[in-house]
Structures are given as C-alpha cells and as structure tokens.
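Onboarding guide, step 5: your first structure request.
Type a short instruction followed by the sequence, for example:

Predict the 3D structure of this protein.
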Amino acid sequence: MSKAYPGTQALDDVDLDVGPGEVVALLGENGAGKSTLAGILAGLTEPSAGEMTWLGERYRPPSPGSALEAGVALIHQEMRLLPELSAAENVVIGRWPTGAHGFVDHRRLLAEAAEVLQSLGFQPDPETLVRHLSVAAQQQVEIAKALAQNAKLLILDEPTAALGQSETEALFSRIRELKERGHSFIYVSHRLAEIRTIADRIVVLRDGRKVAEHESSDVEVDRLVTEMVGRSVDRLFPRMPDPAEDVVLEVEGLTGADDRFRDVTFSVRAGEVVGIAGIVGAGRTELVRAIAGADQATAGSVRVSGRRIRTGSVPEAITNGVVLVPEDRRHHGLVADLTVGDNTMLTNFSKVMRHGRIDRSRVAQLGQRVINSMKIKGRSETRAEALSGGNQQKVVIGKWLELGPRVVLLDEPTRGIDVGARAAIYDVVRGLAEQGLAVVVVSSDLEEVMGLSHRIMVLAQGAQQGIIERSEMTPERIMALATV
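The system replies with structure tokens like these:
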C-alpha cells in the first residue's frame, strides 16, 4: 500500500498480512505511517496505490461503514461513543432492534447488547450512561460495538494509553479469548514492553516504509527502538539530579469532592520528582487538579514555599507558581486550531500586550522563544493541530514555563507519544529538576514513573497507601499497594 499527499509520501509500498487468531503489532514513531495504514484498512483513507484482499476477496472499502460491514473495525485511541446514551445503546447504535409497530424493542436491545458486553467481562449495568463509565469500561463498549457487527479484524490504536496495569491485563485477557474464537488484531502501541506480552508478530514502520518484520514478539526493546527511530536511544530515562533539602510543595490531609481522594499528605523538594502511581480511578488526576486549583478540595491544605494557597482557584495557584500539564492535552492543554504563538500567549498575555492591545510581533517572538527552548519542530505560526503529539506536549509545557513556576504537575506526560519523543519529554523533566523546580508526575506506565521519580506515592481507591523511595522501587511493590 502507498499513500501520497501533496509534498508528502505518507506510506510507501508497505506489505502487511494478518492471519486468523493472530495479533500483529504495528510499531513506529509518530509520522511513521501507522495511522495512514490503519485508516486505509478501515475505509477512512483512500490509498494512492496498492491492493488488498480480505478473506480471499479483493478489498477496498470506500467508507468505514463498508469496512465494518466486511468485518474490519478500527478502535480509536480517543473513543467515539455517545456519552448521553447507555452502554447498551452505544453497542447497537444504527442497528436498533424494532418491534411489530416500528418502535425500538428495548428488551431485545438490552439482551443483544448484554450478551456481547458480558462476553468481554463488562461489569457495570449495560443501562449505565457512557459518561459514567471508566475509560476501561468505555473501551469494552467500543470493542463490543465492533463485535456486535461481526468484526473479525480489530485494529486497536493505543488501546492501553489511558489504562493502568490491572486494566491492561484485563484487556489482554479479552484479546486472548477473542483470538481463540478466531478474531484477529492489528495492535498499534508505543509501549514496547507490552508488545512482547500480547503480540504474535511485529511490523516496524519508519518514514512511511516497512523497515523490519519479526516472526515473534521475543525481540529486545533496544533493537525495536533503534528500528523505529533509526538511531540508538541509549538511555531512555536520564539520570536525575539529587534534590535540594528545601521543601517547595506541601500537601497535607487533602480530600477531594465525593471522596475521589482523601487525606493525602506528601511533600516535594526543590529539584525532586515525585511520581504518583495507581490504577485508573485511584484519584490521581483529581488530586493534581485540586493542587492546581482546577477542583475544590473539601479538607486539607496546599502550601508552596510555606505559603498556604486556596484550592479551587486556578489564578491563585498560578500566582503562587503552581501549573498543571493536563492528561488530555488536545482538549484541556491546547487550542488545536490556534498557532504555537497564540497558544503560548494564552498564559502570558502580560508579555505580548502593548498599549492595551496584543502586539502580534511579540506573540511571534514569544512563540519562537518557546520553540527554541523546548526544541519544538515547528514555527510560531504553525497550528497546534499540525504538530506531532510530542511537540504538542512541549508547547503545553513551554507555555507554562514562561511564567517561571515553582511547581510543575505533569499528568500522563507521554500519553500517546512515540518512543523518540518520550525520550525528549524525559529530558525536559530532567531539565525542570535541574532548575530546582518541584515536579509531580502522574503516570499509568510503571516503567516511566519508576524511571523518572525520586520517590513514588501510591494511591488506591482514593486512599494514600504509601510512599516508596527510589532504592526500594519494584513493579511488584507498587502494584501490591495499588491493588489493595
């Protein structure tokens, strides 16, 4: 398959085959061609050249509906469910079972949807609204939706990006069960360790071309990294500097609304990176949002350099040097259709105003300064949506660093980012520590949180289970605390 856009060869003569009951991992940096290939297979993208066969017949779907009708489904990283409908309604949407008079037969609808959902180990009530479901449960709904339409090949795009360890293991169990029933998978992920757990074969793309294919998943991670980025990434996690003695951030007895987290106490020193680990739903995101003033805490206190700050006030948190890089950068960290310069301006109006009006030359200078300091591949006038995930994340971090913060809260800083860009983000974290900032990193990736942190605090069901020093960190110890 090949796909050319004006000035860009997104996919160049790529061969791929998938057998029945097989998981083929598709690896590559952002821009390697993975999404283009997945889009062609799923009927989203028209190829420029090449041929496909599916179940022995010529295959070239003109639309996602045609692909799904043929048995090929793409499960997007950003799930596309209707939040105000129930899980069951989302499973059968577009294929409503009707009764004799043409009305929707809700009893039949529930029965059909529940059968598919339960086969995937879905625990909540099928009548639960999607907006009330966890990310893991929503993912099960997406897969059930595809299976209900008899999909035999499922393309999973970063399926564990928002999942913790236990949710990931549960997903892998479902995949293995479906494999035994003859379903096949193309598995797109940046988490190389999990590829070795779930994949049968590995295909590596770089710059739109297939550069390697492995007949088993038993491949050294270092080799896969080199194949993906075209160079050796010797040390994915940089050596962190020793922190100073003075405490910058103090959190004491902090409790959130609806007890999403409760009685949390910890501190962060200058130049220290404290990780927050726990499974999805443990209260990690809610905790850092409260520290950053985005949510109101119902009890406890937050102090920066000894000064107490009000919770529930973002301006007060920012004034006292606390900034948050949110989990969902596209919806909460950036305005995608604005330029790099304009996104940076949004947190730095005082630097671009002149005589009460925005000075566009100052905006351009500010954007370029962030581009240079963060080593972003782009220009000040580049729209944020045109950047790779790694460069988007650098823009979010860079716009806050222009304020000269003392505390930086990073929620899932490398979610959906390829391995080469991850190394660059890790270097940014090291740079923050070297500058003497207090850094808090929330991550569902155990390897990441262990590789970056001086200490790790573990949450489970909103309760603080303990703080582990670097010398005592092991995945087993973290998970033992996270699953109590």
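Each response can be followed by summary notes, for example: The radius of gyration is 24 Å.
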